[in-house]
Automatic annotation (TrEMBL):
This is PepSY domain-containing protein. It comes from the Bacteria. It holds the Pfam family PepSY_TM. Keywords: Membrane, Transmembrane, Transmembrane helix. PANTHER family: BLL7967 PROTEIN, IRON-REGULATED INNER MEMBRANE PROTEIN-RELATED.
Amino acid sequence: MTKSKKKTPWQKTRKLFNDIHLWLGIGAGLILFVVCLTGTIYTFRSEIEEIVDASILKVDVPEGASTLPLETLVAKVEEKAGAGKASSITIPADPEKAYAVSIRKEGERRGTNYMIDPYTAEFKGSSQTATSDFFMIVFRLHRWLMLDIEIGRPIVGWATVIFLFLTITGLVIWIPQKVKSWRQGLKIKWTANWKRINHDLHNALGFYSAIILLIMSITGLYWSFDWYRSGLYDVLGVEQPTRGPRGNNEKKKDAEPPKASTLSLADYLKVAASELDYTGDYRIDLPAPNKKTVSISKTKVGFFAMAGRDKVELDKYTAAVAKKELFSDEPINHQIMHSIRSIHTGEIFSTFTKIIYFISCLIATSLPITGTIIWINKLKKKAKRKQKIVITKKEKTPELASV
């Protein structure tokens, strides 16, 4: 009889991680498939909406025409929208895009965006379209599987924790036992049979996307568990903002008889443009009667533009700069916490990272499928091996009996 080789500590560790990887993947595979697929679809949401809803979001630029006064556009939207008051206006850097005026009704936390042609004051309609409704379904599937939030959110959260472990254990399993086998784990052998190709797709693509998948998992848990969100703020040393009713503190602080300003929104925008001298999208928070300042924020646009937002607070009566906040001046820990959403969605460096995230999400969507196929193939292989052993034993039995 030949003695079976004793497994090395590395082989035992590899076997343990392989078992963890296998059973966690089987247990959470379907949920992770849905979460990754919806994340893939959601990556280029704004670009898809601009194509599908071009009649609402795009405008024709007349030759030699200039944009109308912002006050005229706001008044037009308020008139068409009916109930509610304009709370902000978004001015895109792209001259072929419509302006968005946010109308907030009493009691609403968030307003509804209405699009308007800045050259003709043509009311384009609400940004709530069939396309946005579709992406809202995708969003709900991604965040809580279209279930009740209190049920679906923790399910997705724990599935994300499992995904985190799957990525880590997958990296450990990927590490070859022999140095000469490293190159094999980095490529897909397209000339091999379909089982080998499927195995290479799972291993190689999983390795190449691992870092992005880890980032997605770590940031995604921010919205799943309150304890995780609080812990993330503590680890990075950033004070967690308190959530409460909007505007109460401002009203107490600025309460005084309303005083009309003689400045136009264009005057404020001109000062903001000089303070934030680069190409970008503006958002003007329309000043309430009891507020002494006008808030204007700006974000850079471009293929590799960082998603951080700069902000200036201007005196309502003089347009003097009362406060200026540049994203680049913030400490790195604050930048990370203020960019959690854009880091998770791939918007952190605009189109550049969106492309990377889209490919990574697509790979992540395929991993439960290729992994399951690998598992089924192994089960079939084990079954054939057992069957062969049984047949061999039956063939040897008569010989032993005759002896």
